[in-house]
Amino acid sequence: MSATKSDTITGVDAWNWRTVPGWRRAGGFLTTLAVASLLITSCGSKDSEWIEAKRVDTDEAYLEFIEDNPDSEHIPEAHSRMETNNFKRAQKQNTIEAVTEFLKPFPDGQHAEAAQSKLELMHYVKAEKINTGDSYNAFLKQFPNSKHAEKATAALAPFDLAEIIHGGTIEDFEAYLKKHPEGKASDRARARLKILKAEAAQASE
User: Fold this and answer.
1) Using CA atoms, how far apart are residues 30 and 26, in angstroms rounded to an integer?
2) Cβ neighbours of 42 (radius 10 Å)
3) CB-based burial label for 127 (10 Å; 0-12, 13-18, 19+)
């Protein structure tokens, strides 16, 4: 009987030791597998959303992706793609308004320097077409450091001289020559200034 009892105890111990932990191990494995599956599914879903956004390739698609996936590693590329698309549209439209609108949301973007250079050129061409003192002054006021500023200043010289050639004072001509030291208009200004100084000297005698 003692042997039977011993066998029974051994059987219970063996059942507890071998079977129960096995269930636990199996349950833990299944739980881990389920979590891993969810993570893979989630990652796959996000990747599919990104692939779809790129396929559609519109601002709306990228903005929706960014809103739905604020921590995605693809967000910098989404911003870059939006900027490039908008820049291409602005180039295609080729208007001051289109380039100006592009620069509003992307003032420091990868295409901002090219857009700014394009904008300055378009404004200079516009001033040149109008070809008045006001048009060149407006350009210089808006883009004082533009690479086209020197040409605009030179083009402005005859208009500035016209304002003072009749009735201008010595001070007016000196200020003019400080602003426009070279050019045909400046030669006329120097000649007029010489006459004014001679008249002033004669009057003081």
Assistant:
1) 6
2) 10
3) buried
Q: Is the four-CA dihedral 144, 148, 153, 159 of positive or negative sign?
A: negative
How much is the CA Rg of the chain, to the nearest whole Å? 40
Tokens of 124: 């200079």
Which residue, among 199, 165, 167, has the nearest Cα to 185 in the 3D structure? 165
The tokens for 126 are: 């516009």
pTM of the full predicted structure?
0.72
**DSSP conformational letter for 147:** T
Residue with the two structure tokens 């908008």 = 86
* φ, ψ for residue 144, nearest 5 deg: -65, -25
pLDDT tens, position by position, 164-185: 999 999 999 999 999 999 999 9
